[in-house]
Design a protein that fits this description.
By secondary structure, this protein is mainly alpha-helical. It contains three helices and no strands.
């Protein structure tokens, strides 16, 4: 959201990156989706750290979409 403290967003992205480590699966498809989403979290954090709010926001939205896909597919498998 506009007006959100950039440092707070970066902290939340770092927290999300730590939390995603608890998602475990031996399923190759799920692992690939998780890996892509995690990379996008890192990209978002780097973009925000570099002052690129547009790029950071876009990467964050992509990561969210990937994690939603991961959740749906994870629930279908398990």
């Amino acid at each position: 959201d506009k007006g959100t403290d950039q440092n707070a967003v970066v902290e939340l992205l770092m927290e999300a990156k730590q939390v995603q480590k608890s998602i475990s699966s031996s399923n190759a498809t799920l692992s690939m989706i998780k890996s892509k989403a995690t990379q996008k979290l890192g990209l978002a954090r780097n973009s925000f750290n570099d002052g690129d709010l547009t790029g950071g926001g876009a990467a964050m939205k992509e990561a969210l979409a990937d994690f939603k896909t991961l959740k749906e597919k994870y629930n279908a498998v398990y």
